[in-house]
Amino acid sequence: MPERIEFWGIPNTWGSPAIYVYTLMALATILLVYRFYQRARLWWRVGRPEVRWDHLHVRIWRLIKYAILQTRILGQEYPGIMHIALAWSFFVFFLGTALATIDAHFIKILQGNTYLIYKFILDTFTIFFLIGAVLAAFRRFIRRPRRLTLKPAFVWSLVLIVVTVLAGLLTESLRLAVEKPAWALWSPAGWLVAQAWIASGASESTLMNWHVGIYAFHLLIVTVLIATLPVGTLLHILTGPLNVFFSKIDRPTGRLAPIPETMNGEPVYASTLRGLTWKQLLDGDACTECGRCQDVCPAFAAGKPLTPKEVILALRESLRQDGPALLGKQEKQPLLVGERIKDEVLWSCTTCGACVRECPVLIEHVDAIVDMRRYLVIEGRMGIELQGALENLGRYGNSFGQSERMRARWTQTLEPKIKDARKEPVEYLWFVGDYSSYSPTLTDVTLKTAAVFQKAGLNFGILYDGERNAGNDVRRVGEEGLYEMLVEKNVEVMKKCSFQKIVTTDPHSYNTLKNEYPTNGNGHRPVLHYTELLDQMIASGQLKFSKKLGYKVTYHDPCYLGRYNGVFDAPRRIIQATGCDLVEMPRHGDRSFCCGAGGGRIWMAEGEIQERPSEARIREAVKLDDVTTFVVACPKDVTMFRDAVKTTGNEQRLAVQDLIELVYAAL
Amino acid sequence: MNIIILVKLVPDLVEELTVDASGAALDMAWLRLIINEFDDHAIEQGILLKERGGGQVTIVAPDVEGIDDVLFTAAAKGADHLIKVKGDFSAGVNNHALARALATVVKGLQPDLVLTGVQANNDIDGALGPLLAGLLEMPYVGYLSGVAIDGAKTKVRKEYPGGLIAEMEVTLPAVLGVQAAEQPPRYVAVSKVRQVMKTSTIEEQSASPLDPSGGPKISRMFQPETGGRATMLTGTADEVSTQLVGIFKELGVL
Amino acid sequence: MTQDIYVVIEHLRGQVAEISYVMLAAAQELAKGQNGKVVAVLLGKNAQGLAGNLAADRLISFDHPGLADFTSDAYQKVLAGLIQKDQPRAVFFGSTSIGTDLASVLSIRLGLPLVSSCRLFTPEGKYVSQICGGKIMAEGELPGPTSLVTMVPGGYKPEQGQSNQSPAVTQGEVPSLDSLRVSLKGYIEPAAGDVDIAKEPILISVGRGIQNKDNISLAEDLASALGGVVTGSRPVIDQGWLASSRLVGKSGKQVKPKIYFTLGISGAPEHAEAIMGSNAIIAVNTDPAAPIFNIAKYGVEMDLFDLVEVLTEKVKAAKAS
Lengths: 667, 254, 321
Prior knowledge:
The complex is a heterotrimer.
Chain A: H1 17-46, H2 56-68, H3 77-105, H4 112-143, H5 152-179, H6 188-200, H7 204-228, H8 236-245, H9 278-286, H10 292-296, H11 298-301, H12 308-327, H13 343-347, H14 354-358, H15 365-378, H16 384-396, E1 419-420, E2 428-431, H17 434-438, H18 443-455, E3 460-462, H19 472-477, H20 480-495, E4 501-504, H21 507-515, E5 527-529, H22 530-540, E6 552-555, H23 569-577, E7 581-582, H24 613-622, E8 629-632, H25 635-647, E9 655-658, H26 659-666
Parallel strand pairs in A: 1-3, 2-3, 2-4, 4-5, 6-7, 6-8, 8-9
Chain B: E1 2-6, E2 9-11, E3 33-35, H1 37-53, E4 56-62, H2 67-77, E5 81-86, H3 95-109, E6 113-117, H4 128-136, E7 140-150, E8 153-159, E9 165-171, E10 174-178, H5 190-199, E11 202-206, E12 220-222, E13 231-233, H6 237-250
Parallel strand pairs in B: 1-4, 1-6, 4-5, 5-11, 6-10, 7-10
Antiparallel strand pairs in B: 2-3, 7-8, 8-9
Helix pairs in contact in B: 2-5, 3-4
Chain C: E1 5-8, E2 11-12, E3 15-16, H1 18-34, E4 38-44, E5 58-63, H2 72-86, E6 90-94, H3 99-110, E7 114-121, E8 127-131, E9 136-140, E10 147-151, E11 168-171, E12 182-188, E13 202-206, H4 216-226, E14 229-232, H5 234-238, E15 259-263, H6 269-275, E16 280-285, H7 292-295, E17 298-301, H8 304-320
Parallel strand pairs in C: 1-4, 1-6, 4-5, 5-11, 6-10, 7-10, 13-14, 13-15, 15-16, 16-17
Antiparallel strand pairs in C: 2-3, 7-8, 8-9
């Protein structure tokens, strides 16, 4: 009967093999735990406290989805398959070893058919693993994609795990070569290799000696693997799942945390690592240096000094180097911002969230960048253009430096006048937004929006010159005090109004009004983007189209509408309803490529760039044959992309239109 | 080094300025008062001097609506003391009256150096700085883009047209009129100002009754005639460009 | 006490500043109505040679080594003595780096009323001053018996203040110039730029409306297309978006090009006075009330970003054909 023999072929001459095995494993484990603890304790000793133990069921589900099934990694085909080949195989090997231990000391399960299936699965995964290893080697040595860190440490890890598995395979094959059991085919890989030994004609004792030797070697290698895990690149085996488990739950991606305060009410800024939370420090250690975030970052693509990967690795490096000093009492604490991470790197971020969406271990790059920006703002370290915009926002409530009284100037030509929500009750409060109100190039689009609302019989009003910038990007720039001031002003005006729902033109206003504004006394009223509203109105029949436009269009998902708030389908349904043909760009939906204006970037000097993100995006669109219209749903997108169409010389080829313009034309 | 900085608020030129019913004064209804841009530079220069050479910076300003915010912002930048001078400033006063009101306060502070903006957009009877200098019998140099303290003297850089700079030495105590600080006025975060509001106080001092003599009487205020205005070109960007090309040709440059 | 109008002549490094001629022109107008004479007042060292073309009835010259270069304390001392002794109807100073160092202090010291930023006088002898960036004018009686006035350019042509006949000269008595609290250490020449903008016939000038450094390339494109040079107003230079050699304004260069094409410049007095001699000012600004439109020959009320690239293309096309 087939069964697993514990320590087959290992002699007792120097004592029971179990002693060696368990002693070595115990030592290795102690070393593992000790070194890991040394690393991990820096997180909570240096970093600020934060509650991340809530919603355990969600966290466990995330562990299964991202750490075990590894769905994010599978988002890319080649590296996805490569990694699950390596990772799942090791899960299986680990389970296999666990089962073997139980079988040896507690319950004899590995016998009969169970044993055969057990062997078959292990062997299949060995083959799977080796395929993965070949894929990995090919990728790392031949393909050499830019986003990977091609350091020797990674090669060492790959070699270590491959050698481990090969040693195990060889051990098995040597046993099979000696035993030649009837069920050998249930270990196909081992049996195949065994043929080589059999063919060599070596004697049984030779094979037995080799078996012991390779077994011992395998044992040693595994000891080394386990003991060096916390200091090598395989640390992500522990930190990755931990990071996934502790990822943020209660905040939707679109909500930032307020500035933390000490017990005396003093604000804490991220000048040093001590200003960051333990979870943010864990982010640094969980990073596998895969570089997927870098690949999707619009700032990096433009040639700016920012790459999310390097920011996170800088956190790790800082913790490693400055950790001990930060725990000491010395006067001059090593600075994080300005020294480890340069100002310009932090200012380059558009907060588009693509990095956060891509990361296989759920690192939260944007929050860390905003936290560090908050420090820069309090120190007054920013470009003069951003300073001017913030001063204007503080004084006039808009970044254009124009009087509040000019905010509603665009309404002057309208008949009938739009209701003043401050004076009469309305159903929908239309929060127009700065760009739609003040920018002369967008007046046309704003007027069309008003016309569409009116034609659809919507009961709506605006705040006229009572409206202020909603503050989304002010907050992302790190000027939290100014953000609070703007929120106060807007809430004060809104409190005096009577309305049921808010509808916004701009996805940035949408994000902050929906996710970050305080709930008012009478419950949080629904906030809609105009695409959601129009979608509802089309479905209910309130909004009807009289013609089919028949354009071939592509749609650019705005970062704060799509990726941050999950509104992908509503705009697409509207496009369909207007009778247009939608062709998707390769990067669409939550993989949409940012136009480059977010995170306050539209207020800053462009600086040195190689290729504007907006231009790259237009080039992506132009590759779609026959597409004549580039549809957007954000006023800043309109501005950025219309410029980009001009500067890339595509004026004859592609027209940039806001979705409302299609709706207006089809009414 | 005891540095005093005088600050006044002026109409924000972003808003439309109109003349009131009397025909001789600005309509205050839509007027927004903001810090005189040059006084903002004076504050920056004063803070820089303190950062470089130590000393105390005191801001002195007339008590008008909105002055508290301005004073606290200066404190958040590094000013040590804030003084607002109470008086009947509501109807608007000329600089002679303002200078007299502030002179007693400033004298009492025994300054080494008084900094203020070289001019303000609502000056009708000379700038505040030199008038104060006259009252305090201190030397005055204006149009400065650089100030350095050198013992009992100060070295200044005075701007002339064409980018020419004159380096002068002035014995202290003196009043200086700042055109531009050595670096643009720094940004101070709103939360910092709010923080400072909780910890700083503004000292109040009273002014003697205001004496505007020395300033002219204004019998009429008006917006400049639009006669002699430009010929406005209208149309789309395309149309206007064509017109402009025609004008360039007429002028002989194309 | 006389009805004469005294004009404090401003000169720098051997050159009479244009404002002096503007003031003389104003003085001539005012003196006519008052039946007074125009008296030019010149402080300096061996500076009489500068008096050649001043349109004044006479000149009082204060010649002293200590007055060779302007310093506020020295000049104040001399003028205080003169004004106190002669008590003219009015004394004109330039609203400049020189004049403003003097007028206000003398107003307090001598107890004389002061009117600043005066642009012109009405036929009845009322002053008309500009305030609030040129957006508001204030008018009133010129206080008597003696008034101090600081003047800005724009109300009179400098040519009106020039004459072929040099005025008769009297020597003034210079008081003791000891214990002065302000002394001159030296001059610093402006950085030599790649171009002398005062000599260029076509200037494309950018103001705050250009918004940031990167957008200046739009102006550069237009300038290259037209064969001109890019200049800027004070805010643009202060931010470091253009070199200081490109500054047009009170503290920068005064220019009189064939075409002065402005993008996003409001036309505040400090800038306006430096471009007033231009042959043709063409202004682009979104604010219809911008003061620049009062001195421009042609105006476009449009966002410069909507116009400038289209215009550059058309200019290139016109040049090509």
